[in-house]
Amino acid sequence: MSAPGSLLDLRDLAVSFNTEEGLVQAVDGVSIELRAGEVLAVVGESGSGKSVTATTLMGLTRGPNATIAGSATFEGTELISASDEELRAIRGNRLAMIFQDPMSSLDPVYRVVDQIVEQIQAHRDTRSGEARERAIELLDAVGIPDAAKRADSYPHEFSGGMRQRAMIAMALSLEPSLLIADEPTTALDVTVQAQIIDLLRDLNQRRDLSILLITHDIGVVAEIADRVAVMYAGRIVEQGTIDEIFYEPQHPYTWGLLDSLTRIDRPRPKRLSQIPGMPPSLLAPPRGCHFRPRCPHAFDRCTEVPSLLPRVAAAPGHLDRCWLEPARKQELRQAGDRDALEQPR
Amino acid sequence: MSATSEGLLEVRGLVKHFPIKSGLLVSREVDSVKAVDGVDLSLAAGETLGLVGESGSGKSTLCRTVLQLIEPGAGSVRFGGRELVGLRQRELRPLRRDMQMIFQDPYASLNPRRRIGQIVGGPIKLHGLASGAELRRQVEELLERVGLSPEHYDRFPHEFSGGQRQRIGIARAIALKPKLIVADEPVSALDVSIQAQIVNLLDDLQDEFGLTYLFVAHDIGVVRHVSDRIAVMHGGKIVETGTADQVCERPIDPYTKKLLAAVPIPDPRENRARRAGASLA
């Protein structure tokens, strides 16, 4: 049973694909809960399984060579076993999604307003005039200037940022309770990215829209998320509140991610700290902890898979998958900080 | 010749406009895209100049025009004391040994039907510097230098990850021991943990070979890390130049300020403080 206040509840979600080269375990036992009203960020690098997790919720990974196991309940409905019709009724309606590239998600031959109208009329019995009015209202609400006039534009007449705004307007058209945003700002310039993040934050706070944010960008996470799940090679390796992840990170992979960032608000280090090696192939992931081959602190026990558990006594909601004792982690972390400080540029 | 007082690369008043044509039968020029619109730059030997700007600011056109891959409309590019603008391809070819480029997309910039050895050794062979066993030895050494293995010699690009492909591109760029490397968004297609590896590799190679970098990126954090000086480009023009710390800590131009203010800070507490400050103001 899902806890009260839980909007989306994933339990041991596993997605694998049969490919010519073999079985790819893209998502390997993901359990996480998104509470109503929060922004949950899933952060990870390419191949971590973050996008497959999101698209599976929308039923977009279904196919003859995909095997989906586990459970994902959204507002009490099981999404994994839902029929295509049931999914269609939920998708776009209670559960909406926006993608990285707004140009390829909009139909180039239809006017922007008509695409929103179509979505509204697909789910609601609304007259065209009324649906059009609603669409213009939405475009205005997401910050399209002169929305009544621009609504009749074609997608190619919009800039990248305006297209993403139009996608968000479309996603909001039926007042969903959850928005899945898959790398919503990755294709945008940094100044436009800042505007879209502000818009999403505003929607979260004013309209009580819950957001599942999928991103590779830790900076974006820090700007908007309430809670964070860090994914690596198909598994969540750490999850917690945003402050827990940024200020008390427990997993060596999270340390590596945070340390390899360049920060314009800090003195430059002589050298960027780097995670050695590269992510494992999901065709033949390493035994035990998937991060083990790249981890400078790995020891014997790491050949067994650590469970995702609360390991810090004072923070029951802060989970990680690492066998190191919390006290030992703290020592290692502090030693790492000292090394970094000892060689200023 | 006053080559001693001038830098390795001196760009003056560089212009590249692309015509916008209209008309069905007789097309005429109705307007132009001013991709590079009067740019001055200078790079001293051994330094890294970072060039930042958003998409459409003209960064990539500037790189290609500097290297004479695109013919500039006007202006001058002096490299090692020699004017490049107006030279014929035949005259440019020997000079190209000293100026190489690293591209953004390691998937598109390597010929998928060539083996790694051919890709990396291509420039050496083309300039007639080595052949046969000697060529192979040099290429294997280059592969090792960029963190690959000599056994990769006979493999094809599709067998490598994005980060490894960028290493291949780097090996090819340093194969001729150039003086100048123009790196156009060399890490923006890569994951963060791999980005740091490539940035550190470029740093090491600079120390080892005394390379001069024109490092282009939209990510101001990465640019600040690698650069001695930074030039900010906007609308085909350089709007601000200064040392890396000057530009990032005490920006003067309003566009630079806007760009810096938009960079996400990976520090939630600081962000909350910034937002609280902004809503009070």
Write a concise synopsis of the structure shown.
The complex is a heterodimer of chains A (345) and B (281). Chain A is an alpha/beta fold and 345 residues long. Chain A has helices at 50-57, 84-90, 102-105, 112-123, 128-141, 147-150, 160-172, 190-206, 218-224, 242-247, 252-259, 326-342; strands at residues 6-19, 22-35, 39-43, 66-74, 77-78, 95-98, 178-182, 210-215, 227-232, 235-241, 309-310, 319-320.
Structural features, described:
The complex is a heterodimer of chains A (345) and B (281). Chain A is of the alpha/beta class and 345 residues long. Among the domains of chain A are: 102-175, no CATH class; 250-342, no CATH class. Helix content of chain A is 34%, strand content 22%. Chain A is built from 12 helices and 12 strands. Chain A has an 8-stranded mixed beta sheet, with helices on both faces. A 4-stranded antiparallel beta sheet of chain A has the order 2-1-4-5, with helices on one face. The longest helix of chain A is centred in the middle third of the chain and has 17 residues, at 190-206. Helix content of chain B is 38%, strand content 25%. Chain B has 10 helices and 10 strands. In chain B, strand 9 and strand 10 form a beta hairpin. In chain B, helix 3 (116-126) crosses helix 4 and helix 5 (162-174) packs parallel to helix 6. At the A-B interface, helix 8, helix 9, helix 10 and helix 11 of A face helix 5, helix 6, helix 7, helix 8 and helix 9 of B.
